[in-house]
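Forwarding these from the shared drive since the link keeps breaking.
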Amino acid sequence: MISVIVPIYNIQEYIYDTLDSLIKQTYSDIEVLMIDDGSSDNSSEICKIFSKNDKRFIYYHKDNGGLSSARNLGLEKARGDFIFFLDGDDTIHPHLLEIMINKIGDSDIAYCNVEVVTNTLKTYLMNDDLRNNVATSIVTNIQMINRMYQANPLPYIVIWNKLYRYNIFNNISFPLNKLHEDEFVNYLIYDRAIEIKFIDFAGYYYLVRDNSITQSKMNIRRFDSLEALVLRQHYFEEKGYNELCKKNIDLIIYNFKERCKFAINFSRNERLEVKKKRKLIMGIVFESKRSTIKQKIKCILVVNYFKIFKGF
C-alpha cells in the first residue's frame, strides 16, 4: 500500500483538485492522510467530505505547527510500505502512482519529472502505452545528490514527486519551524538509498501561486536554506564527499548573495541575524579543507560587498 501524505493549511481554493487527483488514480491500494495543520478556512470541511465518501481518505486535525510538523505526523500515522508526499495545492497525473509502483522494482526511491503549472486544470493523456512504455533509468545515491546542484534542481531538491520505501525515513524527520524544510532532509534520504529509479514522465504538477510560502517576499526565514546547506556541508565533510563539498561551498556563497540581494527593509534584529549567517558561512568556507582559494576570494568579495553597501 502507498501512504499519500497531504499537508493542508488554508488552501480551500486548491485542496479539492488535489484530493480529486488522488480519487482518479488508476492504482487503488492507497491511503490518503489529510493532515490539517489548523486551517481556519473551509479546507477541513472539504477534507471531511472526501473522508466520508471514501474510506481510504483519513482526516487528521492538529494545532498549527507548520509544514514539517504536518509531514512528521503523516509519517507517524502511515501504514503503507511506500510513502508519497503531495502538497495540498498540487495535483498528479491519474496514472502516476500506478506507474511508480510498477516501475520502482527493488529501488528504494522512484521519482518522476515535474511540470510547473499556474492553475489546477489539466488535460491528461491516458492510455496503456503511457502506463507500460515509460522509460526508466537507474541513478546512484551520489548521482542523485549531484543533481541537486545542476541548473534546474527542482525535481531533486523537493521531497514530493517521489515514491519512497517507508523504512528509508527511519530516524529522519522534518525540522520544525523552518522554511526550505526539504533541503534539511533530502540529501540524507538519497544517501541511504542503494538504488534510485528515474521515471521519464512529468506526472507531478507543481502549482505556482503568488501567495504560496515559496513565493512569499524575502524575510529572515528565507535564510533557513543557508542553515540547511551548512548542515549538508558538515555531512559531506564527515563522509569524505570531496567534490560535493566543493559544489556545496559554491552554493552556500551563491545562496547568501541571493538572499542578501533581496533583503529589503530588514529590521535591526533581522540585520543582526544576517550578520550571524555571514560569520557562519565565513567559518565554513575558511575552515573547510575542501574549499579552494578561488572560493575563499569569492566569499570575501560577496561578504564585504553586502557589509559595506547593506550593512550586513
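-- next protein --
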Amino acid sequence: MSIFLIILNLLLMGGVCWWLYNRSVELGDKVFLSALAFKTLATLALGWLYQSYYSAGDILNYFRLGDELNNELWLDPVRYFRVIIGVDHFEAFDGQPGVVFMAKLVSVVNIITGDHFWLSSLWLSLFCFSGLIFLVKVLLQLYPYHKFGILILLFWPSFTFWSSGLLKESLAIGALGFLMGGFILFIYGGLGRNRWKAAIPAALLFLLLWQVKYYYAGVLLLVIVSFLATRMLSQKLKITGGAKQVALYFAFMMLLALIITRLHPNFYLERFAEVIVNNYETYHHISDPEDVVDYDDLEPSFISLAVHSPKALFNGLFRTMIGESMELLKVIAGLENFLFLFLVVAALFRINGIKRKQVLLLCAMLSYVVVLLIFLSLSAPNLGTLSRYRAGVFIVLLPLIAIQNPLIERVKRLVK
C-alpha cells in the first residue's frame, strides 16, 4: 500500500473531523476532542483484540471477504459491480444477508483505503461518531442544563468499544444516532420546512440499519409508528390523559406488531418463538458454559418466552456482574455494570418529576428498550455477544437514565 494513499485517507478523515468540530461548538473543544480520541482508541483496541487475542471473528471475516471481492474488481470490474448490486453471486459468500452486505460495504471502503485494515476501521468508526455527535447536539438543544448526563453517550466504555471498527454495530449505531436525532427534531418541530427534505436520507439510513441489524430496525419502526399514530389520534380526539395515551400507544403497538412480523422471516409470528429458541440453543452449543446464561425449560412458545422475560431483562441490563469471573475483560464488564446499576437505581428517584407531556415519549423509549433487550437476551445468551448487541439498546437507555439523574447531577456539582 502506498504512503500517498495512507496520507490521503488521513487528510480526508481530518477534513471530516474538522467539519464536525466546527458544527459542534456547543460541545466545547475539550469534550469534542476527548470524545474523538476515545473513539479512535476504542477502534484500535477492538482491532487489536480481534487480531491478536481472538485471532478470528466477524470483523476479520468482513475484511477478508471484502479483500477477496476486491480482487474480483481488478479481474472483472463489470462482474464486481454486478456482485455489489446483487445480480451475480460471489463464490466466497456463504452466509447470512447481513454478513454479505457488510462484506460488500467493506469492499467498497477498502477501495478507498487500499485494503488497509486500520483505515477501513477508522472510516466506519467515524460514521458512528458522526451519528452520535448529531444525536448529542439534538439532546443538548432540549436539555441544555444537563450536558453532563447527555455526554455519557460519547464516553460510556462498552458502548463506545462495541460500536467501533468494522463491526456491524458501527453502522447500526451511526444510523440510529442520525435517525433518533432526526425523529426528536421532527416531533419537536425542529426540522421546520426541511422535514420533507430529511425524508430521503432518513429512508436510506433506515435501509442501512435494516441491512445490518434488522431487529434494531424492526423494533424502532414499531415504536416510532406507534408513537406518531398515538400522538396524531390523541390530538384529533383531544386525549390529554397520560394513562389513556399509554393505553392507546400499546394498542397501536400490538396492531403494528402483527404487520411487522411479516417484514422478515425471523419475525414471522408462526416462527418467532422457534427462531429465538433455536438461536438460544445454538449459542449454548458453541459457547463455554461459564459464558452463557441458562433459561431452564425455555420452549418455543410465547408463554415460555413471557415467563423467562423478567430474567432476560435483568441479564441484558446487568450481566456480567462483579465476582462472576476473574477474567480481565469480564472484571471490567462487571465493574461497568455495577456502576450502571447505581445509575439505574438513582434514576428511579426522579420518577415523580416526570411531566404529563413527557409520558408518551418516555413510554416509547422504555418499550423500545424492554422489547429489544428481552429479544436479544433470549436469542443471544452469550454474555460477550450480549454486551456487544445491546449497544442498540444503550443508545436510548443511557440518555434515558443519565439526563436529570440525581447521582450524575451531584457528581457534576462536585466537579465544578
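The chain has two domains: 1-212, 270-416. The chain has 20 helices and no strands.

- D.
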